[in-house]
Amino acid sequence: MGSSTGPSAAQNHLRVESLHRYPVKSMLGESVDVLFVDDQGAEGDRRLALIDATTGRVASAKQARLWRDLLKCSATIEGDRVHIRLPDGTTAVADQDGIDEILSRLLARPVRLLDSRPDGATLERADPDQVLERGLDAEVDAPLLELAQATPGDSFVDLAPLHAITTATLAQIGTEAQRYRPNLVITTPPGYPAYAENEWTGRTLMVGGVQVTALGPTPRCVIPTLEHGRLARAPHALRTPVTENRVQAFDFGVLPCAGTYLAVKVEGAIRTGEQVSLG
To answer: What PROSITE patterns does the record point to (predicted)?
Structure first.
C-alpha cells in the first residue's frame, strides 16, 4: 500500500503552535496560552490605536516613514488595563493621565490614543514595492485603507477579525512569525507546502469547539521588513512573497500574500496545542 502525502493527508497533523494579540495597533503584542475569539476578533486584540491629531488617520507602521517607531513599543493586558512598554524601558498605562503627551513626544507628532474606532477610520498604506525600492523615508504612494471592512464592532483590525499563518510558510520565507503579526501560528508537518493558506479560502477550520472560515490570502505590506523590538530589519520578509506568492487578494488586486484572514463562525476559546482540522 502507498502512503498518503500532501496537505490533505496532513490535515490531521495541523496544530496551534502559538496564539497572539496586539492590544495597541502597530505596537508589539503578547503571546497567550488561551485566546477567546468571536465575530469581532480576538479578545483584547487591536482594541486601541493612535490617531494622528493632524490628519485624523489611524497611525500604522504601514506608513513606515511616520510610524515605524511604534514597533519599538509593546503592549500587554494586565487585568483589565493595557500597559505600554516604551523604548526606554519605562511603562505607561493606556488610561493614565497624560498618555497622549507621552506618546506624542515619542513619535514627534501629536497623537491621541483611542479605544473605539471612529466611523470610516482610515490609515495610509504606503506602496510596499516603492518603499523597498526607494527606502523607508522616501515619499511614496500611500493610498488610504478603510479599516475593518469585514469585521463588526469597533476594533482597529485592518480587514478581518483574525489572521493565521503556517509554519510551512514561515519556514519558506525564512523569518519570524512576529513580523507578520498573526493571531494564530499553525504548525504543519514535514512536506506541507508553503502558502497552502491560499487554498483554504472558503473552508472551515475547526479548533476544539471553535470554527473559523478562511476568507482569503493576507496581503503583505512593508511592516514585516521593519525592526520589531530587538529584531533587525528583514527586507526578505516582503521580497520573498513578492517573488513567490503574488495572488489575488480580495478586491485589492494581485498582491504579495502570506497567511490567511479568518472570520469566526462559532466563537469560543482557542488553546495552544489544539488540533486544527480543515472542513
So the answer is: MOSC
Fold held by 6-278? M1 Pyruvate Kinase; Domain 3 (2.40.33)
- Map grid coordinates 487578494 to a residue: 249
Q: Rg (Cα) of the chain, in Å, rounded?
A: 18
**Per-domain residue ranges for the chain?**
6-278
Q: Mind giving me the DSSP string for 234-278?
A: -THHHHHHHHH-EEE-TTS-EEEEEEEEEEEEE-EEEETT-EEEE
Beta-carbon-side half-sphere exposure of residue 146 (alpha carbons within 13 Å) = 6
Distance CA 37, CA 192 (A): 26
Side chain identity, residue 148: A
Q: Does the CA dihedral 248-249-252-258 come out positive or negative? A: negative
Each residue's pLDDT tens digit, 60-92 = 999 999 999 999 999 999 999 999 999 999 999
pLDDT digits (tens, 9 = 90+) for 182-217: 999 999 999 999 999 999 999 999 999 999 999 999
Bridge-based pairing state of the strands 34-38 and 268-271? antiparallel
Could you tell me which residues come within 8 angstroms of residue 172 by beta carbon, excluding any fewer than 6 positions away? Answer: 194, 195, 240, 244
- How far are the Cα atoms of 13, 92, 165, 177 from residue 276, in angstroms, in the given order? 8, 37, 12, 18
Q: How far is CA 218 from CA 108, 161, 162, 167, 197, in A?
A: 31, 12, 10, 15, 9
Taking the CA atoms of residue 140, residue 135, residue 145 and residue 183 in that order, the dihedral angle to the nearest 10 degrees is 170
